[in-house]
Amino acid sequence: MTKAVFPGSFDPPTNGHLNIIKRAAELFDEVDVVIAVNSDKKYLFSKEERLSMLSEIVKAFKNVKVHSWNGLIVEYAEKSGSKVLLRGIRNASDFSYEFDLSLLNHKLNNSIETLFIPTEQKYLLMKSSSIKELAKYHGDISGMVPPCVEKKLKEKFFYHDS
Ligand code: ADP
Known about the structure:
This protein is α/β, with parallel strands linked by helices. It has 6 helices and 5 strands; from the N terminus they run βαβαβαβαβαα.
């Protein structure tokens, strides 16, 4: 049985993340989506909010589960019996960052491999930070995030139509 771990901040989850999850669910027997909880980082959504949004989004996939973790991701992978870390790549700057991170993780535990899944063109510009910025100014975020995330963003930023 092959299990993959897809770690990230998911602050908030986007349709780009969902696309990677969907494709991973077809490639692996099991996928653990792992929400990173870093006490030094400031998130818009709490761990509980991100867990609740992601659980709603992945409920259609029987082989995908959502967890949170506040330590090294290679330790999570080891503990859960997975040898694969998945990361999505949108462009060369993602690659450059992700490549360095993959070397670091491999140095920490060389039995765990990072695999990259390139985004699809329509998700190229979907980035949690840009979507939060758009939502802050009440821009149109439909089509960029799943409906439950759109609702939560509109509540956070007091859209008048929510
Ligand atoms: P992190 O803070 O760990 O980068 P993110 O939630 O921003 O967490 O991203 C988690 C993973 O999802 C990363 O590998 C990121 O490159 C990937 N990702 C984010 N947005 C997209 C997208 N639109 N298409 C493909 N991969 C994406």
